[in-house]
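User: For my dataset I need records formatted as: sequence, then structure tokens, nothing else. Please produce one.
Assistant:
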Amino acid sequence: MNWIERYSASVSWKGFIPLGQEGYDENDPRHGINKSPYSVYGCRCPACRKVASDYSRDRKRRLNPPVYNTTKFAPLGSEDYNPEDTRHGTLRGYNRGRCRCKACKQANADRSLEYSHRKNPDSKFRVDPTNRF
């Protein structure tokens, strides 16, 4: 029985018995219809596990599309370091790129200071635009 036949059967979930409980029937058409038996009822039969796995894999693909940027970010100290790269001086360059050039360190310092001012507006520390690393 394929999934269309199972879905069109319109069987209610009342009386559904997951794998491992007394009365489990592997021929029950509700197993493997959608993710419900796995997540709601805790069924771990092969059909329900496969549906949940497929759903999770497809969801990850939808929410995290592949990045097709072929140029790799080169942090300070690497042989491919390019100070004219527009990603230098950004928080992404500091955090994800792990770059510690002056521009990236300044971006992180500005963010850190702005955060501390939001948390404590009466802070005695103020931003000095002339103070660079």
